[in-house]
């Protein structure tokens, strides 16, 4: 084995809590999630895996059922058996939500009667997971999988405490807990290096990609020695996964992140951006929600704040094209395509944020002048 591979594996696992210490290198997040689920099923000798609606875990056939948004599903292509998804714990658009659900400097516009330390929305969403496990799965399951913040869904944050209790329910049925850190890992959340740490959970398997290689095709599954031993039952390999070049890239990415203080920058600039975007929510009727943590942000566009109905695609497109013409490219996502997905390079500055929010404000003004 080339020393670069071993050196990078050690360097990477030093950033994870024990006993997460064994790496399986692959080339993409989809490959990594596929391997994580395969590993969970092989280890537990069970098949059923639960996830959440609006999740995104990849586009290969084994994962399509977990990418639980209808606009990502192909007709006439059957979903794999053993896939179950619970009601998404979305405090803004879901059936339950309140004014202090999220671990974010910006909360929803919804009201609630919860006292300090209480979240009835969280309790209701946990009940949905429990109901799913009781009615739709056998006595033992293989795993639960979740993103720390749902990326493709539009930066959806779960109520505080939800993921921890959902993981506990899955473990009670013999399941492993898989944390999909493809979009949220490597310090993007600001306060922690891994998104799962913000939920006070300890996964059995962690999946990572995207920022791991800073654009280079590099991904990994990291798990415990006990679970990794499962893969000794038969031959397994990945042709290009963990090649010396990709490991050299991954190692250099970690070095640069440390040198430039990327995680601290995400905390500082991300919080600043969220608060600036919240000002736009307060000013414009079509900005229904601003959410996120660090530089993992979503801005949901609505017809009006009272109904929270998604803004029409034509109007979303008008705002989106205006920002592009003014010099800023925003991502777009969510089930209804009405969320601006903001996951910029982790090196951006407050000055970049000022320019980006000024552009978005101009685009929103243009929309108001055109449609209202």
In words, what does this structure look like?
The protein has 372 residues and is α/β, with parallel strands linked by helices. The protein contains nine helices and eleven strands. The protein is globular.
- How many strands? 11
Could you report the average pLDDT, rounded to the nearest whole number? 95
Structural class: alpha/beta
The dominant shape is globular
Oligomer state equals single chain
Provide the low-confidence segments as ranges.
Answer: none
Largest β-sheet summary: 7 strands, mixed
In spatial order, strands of the major sheet run 1-7-6-5-4-2-3
Order of helices and strands: HEHEEHEHEEEHHHEEHEEH
In DSSP terms, counting alpha (H) and pi (I) runs of 4 or more, how many helices?
9
- CA radius of gyration: 20 Å
Please give the share of residues in helix: 25-40%
Content of β-strand: 5-15%
- The end-to-end distance, rounded to whole angstroms, is 64 Å
Supply database-style keywords.
alpha/beta, seven-stranded mixed β-sheet, four-stranded antiparallel β-sheet, globular
Short description:
This protein is of the alpha/beta class and 372 residues long.
Helix and strand layout, with pairings?
Blueprint: H1 3-13, E1 22-26, H2 29-44, E2 49-52, E3 83-86, H3 120-136, E4 143-147, H4 162-172, E5 176-180, E6 205-208, E7 219-223, H5 225-228, H6 244-260, H7 262-283, E8 287-293, E9 296-301, H8 313-325, E10 331-333, E11 339-342, H9 350-371
Parallel strand pairs: 2-3, 2-4, 4-5, 5-6
Antiparallel strand pairs: 1-7, 6-7, 8-9, 9-11, 10-11
Helix pairs in contact: 1-6, 3-4, 7-9, 8-9
């Amino acid at each position: 084995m080339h020393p670069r591979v071993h050196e990078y594996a050690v360097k990477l696992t030093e950033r994870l809590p024990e006993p997460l210490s064994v790496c399986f290198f692959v080339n993409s997040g989809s490959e990594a999630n596929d391997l994580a689920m395969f590993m969970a099923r092989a280890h537990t000798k069970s098949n059923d895996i639960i996830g959440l609606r609006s999740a995104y875990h990849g586009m290969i056939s084994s994962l399509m059922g977990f990418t639980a948004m209808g606009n990502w599903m192909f007709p006439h292509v059957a979903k794999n058996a053993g896939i179950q998804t619970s009601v998404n714990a979305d405090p803004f658009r879901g059936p339950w939500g309140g004014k202090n659900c999220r671990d974010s400097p910006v909360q929803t516009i919804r009201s609630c009667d919860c006292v300090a330390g209480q979240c009835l929305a969280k309790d209701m969403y946990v009940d949905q997971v429990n109901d799913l496990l009781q009615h739709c799965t056998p006595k033992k399951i293989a795993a639960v999988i979740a993103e720390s913040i749902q990326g493709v869904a539009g930066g959806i944050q779960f109520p505080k405490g939800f993921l921890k209790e959902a993981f506990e329910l899955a473990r009670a049925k013999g399941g492993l807990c898989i944390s999909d850190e493809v979009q949220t890992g490597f310090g993007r959340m600001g306060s922690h290096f891994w998104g799962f740490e913000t939920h006070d959970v300890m996964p059995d398997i962690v999946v990572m990609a995207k920022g791991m290689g800073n654009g280079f095709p590099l991904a990994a599954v990291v798990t415990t020695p006990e679970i990794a031993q499962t893969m000794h039952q038969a031959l397994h390999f990945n042709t290009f996964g963990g090649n010396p070049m990709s490991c050299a890239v991954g190692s250099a990415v970690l070095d640069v992140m440390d040198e430039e203080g990327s995680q601290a920058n995400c905390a500082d600039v991300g919080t600043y951006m969220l608060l600036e975007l919240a000002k736009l929510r307060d000013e414009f009727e079509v900005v229904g929600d601003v959410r996120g943590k660090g530089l993992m942000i979503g801005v949901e566009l609505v017809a009006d704040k009272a109904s929270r109905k998604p803004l029409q695609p034509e109007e979303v497109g008008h705002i989106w094209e205006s920002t592009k013409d003014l010099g800023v490219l925003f991502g777009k996502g969510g089930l209804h395509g009405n969320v601006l997905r903001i996951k910029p390079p982790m090196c951006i500055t407050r000055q970049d944020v000022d320019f980006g929010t000024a552009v978005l404000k101009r685009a929103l003004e243009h929309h108001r002048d055109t449609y209202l």
